[in-house]
Every structure is written in structure tokens, then in C-alpha cells.
């Protein structure tokens, strides 16, 4: 008897694992045509339906084996067990069931339920892709794009993304948008990028909603339109995208595309910061320092700046350095100020380069060192910082012997 279940949906946690493994070029896991996961409701999740599903799987039905694997992967009607999921997916995949092959390829990519093995990921993704499975086509494109188990080849990535996108696979539409934006495997084309983002965004795919919103804010591939940008960012932010939440907050803070609302800005920054978004942490520090949208509290500002600075956000490191320099929210400590200015400067922050040069010139927090002062001021001046250029000029004048 055929199991009366629709093709399942991939859970967010599964694709988040891909993001952690491969970075932000990959999607965060909203469902799309051709993705995998457990059945939602229906006969298959009831006890009697579960028994029929197990009997069918044990009897050799590839479709039932695939669905049983999906149930174990997501914990639908059973405790989650990634290893059992892999066992059932493998049985179905060996029978040629393309959705199981595609899922198995992703599990080997992530290392969920199995040791990570990009060569096996490539093998199973290719088998699914060659049968026209959209998830398999997209996952094969991912492996080519990142050079996992195969030599990196953006042209091949674009080819497989395009095949999956033709079937309306949102992850693939988003991935095509990314490669058109970056000009990888295709000529850079912001208009095409925005077009692909829109296709996925209209399916409710949050990463594409974020990218499309950003395109409207920046006027890349579409006419600049803050209101449209805010609308798309709000959709992605509402779905939990931390980058969209952070950028939407900026629009509320500046009153671009939305009515200015500092409290609303802080609310969105708090949501993004709760997910570790560094720019939001830095902006919350600024809100606490200035009292704009939040209770003025220099100590709390220093805590937010430190959170972001500790994770390598240069602007926050520079802001924390200034607090130490001024003794706001922290004890005044020129040595700590110099340390944080150096961290920010080494990450390329031009203001920090200039400030560090100034400290080496004055000898505050560091031993005076003319060579270090000149080196850091020259870095800032080379990036067009007028104050650094002026300070360099003063150093040069001071070095010249006085005329007799």
C-alpha cells in the first residue's frame, strides 16, 4: 500500500548546520520545493500510520524508508536519532530514491549522523542531481561552489543552481543571486542578483528577503527605495534573520523608509544581539552610551562594546578604547585604551589607526615612539583621513631643524 504522505520539509536546524559548516553563502533553512524532512500531520504521524510506515520500510519500500529516515532526522513521532535516519536514508538511496540520495549528500556534508565526508556527499548529491532532484542539484552546486570533495568550480555551481532554480527551489534561487552579486562563475550583475533574490523572497525565504531589502536600501540592482527596503527587511526580521533585524533597526534609528522610532530600533538590535550579531551589539552600546532609545548607562555601553569587540568587530573595539581613554563606564586606563585601539587598527579601522598614532606621538598609554606614530598615521592618511594627514604634517615640521 502506498504511504499517503506528501514529500516532507527540511527543518531549520538542518540547514543551520550547513551555514555553520560552510558560512553565510548558504541558506538558513526555510522550506522550499524539493527539500526534505518529516511529514507534518496526516496518517503517517498517528500510531497506526507509524506502524504501517515501519512495515512498508522494512518490506523494502524506498519511499517509506526515506520517510522513516526523515521522521528520525526531525523527531516526528519518534525521538530524534540522526544515525537511524542515515541508516534508513541509505537503504532508500541505494534503491535509487533521489530525495534520499539528496538528503544523504547533505548529511555527509554537515556530518550529521555520519562522519563528515565530502567525497560521499558529492557522490550522493550527484546521483540525486542526475535524476533531476532539485535539492540534489542545489547541494551539488554548493559542493562545487565551496570546493568540497571536488575542485572548486563556480561555473559548475552556477549550472547546477540554475537547474534547481528552474524547479522553483528557493535555496538555489538565493544561491544564484549570491553568485550574480559576486560575479562568481557568471558576470557580476546586480540586476540579475536582485531578480533571483526576489523569486526566493516571494516564496518566503528569509535570507533572500534580507538580501532584497538590502538591495533596495543600497540601490544595487533596483532603484534605491528605503520604504521597499524596510518592508523586505521587516519580513526577514520577523522570520528571525539577525542581519535583517540589525539593518532594520538602523532604518528605524535614522527614519529611512519608516517613521523614526529609537525604541523600536533598540528592540530590533536586542533581538539581533541575542543571536550574536556584532553590529547590533555595537549599536546597543552606542544607544546605552548616548541614551538614545535606551536608558543612558555607560557601564552597560562598555559591556555591549566588549561583547562585539571580543568577537573581532573593529568599530566596537575602537568605541571601547575611547571609553577607557575617557573613563566612561570603566576606570580610566590609557594602557587599555591603547590595547583596544591597536586591536581595531590591526583590523583596518582608520580612526583607530590615527588614534593609535596619536598615542605613540604623545606617549599616553604607550612608550613614545616616533616611528610607530608615523607608521600608524601614514596608514590612516593613506585611507584619506584628514586628521592623520594633518598630524603627519606636524610631525614632519617638528623633525626639520629650525632655520637660523
Protein topology:
Layout: H1 12-22, H2 47-58, H3 62-74, H4 82-94, H5 98-110, H6 118-130, H7 134-146, H8 154-166, H9 170-182, H10 190-201, H11 206-218, H12 226-238, H13 242-254, H14 262-273, H15 278-290, H16 298-310, H17 314-326, H18 334-346, H19 350-362, H20 370-382, H21 386-399
Helix pairs in contact: 2-3, 3-4, 4-5, 5-6, 5-7, 6-7, 7-8, 8-9, 9-10, 10-11, 11-12, 12-13, 13-14, 14-15, 15-16, 16-17, 17-18, 18-19, 19-20, 20-21
Can you offer a commentary on this structure?
The chain has 21 helices and no strands. Residues 1-17 and 23-45 have low confidence and may be disordered. The N and C termini lie far apart (106 Å). By secondary structure, it is an all-alpha fold.
Question: Which descriptors would you attach to this protein?
Answer:
elongated; mainly alpha; 0% strand; single chain; 404 residues
Structure at a glance:
Helix content is 67%, strand content 0%. The protein has helices at residues 12-22, 47-58, 62-74, 82-94, 98-110, 118-130, 134-146, 154-166, 170-182, 190-201, 206-218, 226-238, 242-254, 262-273, 278-290, 298-310, 314-326, 334-346, 350-362, 370-382, 386-399.
Give me the count of strands.
Answer: 0
Structural class: mainly alpha
Proportion of β residues? Answer: under 5%
Main sheet overview: none
The Cα radius of gyration reads 27 Å
List unreliable stretches of 5+ residues.
1-17, 23-45
Element pattern in H and E: HHHHHHHHHHHHHHHHHHHHH
What is the count of DSSP helices, taking H or I runs of 4+ residues?
A: 21
- Alpha carbon gap, first and last residue: 106 Å
Molecular shape: elongated
Q: Approximately how much helix is present in the residues?
A: 55-70%
Let me know the average pLDDT.
Answer: 89
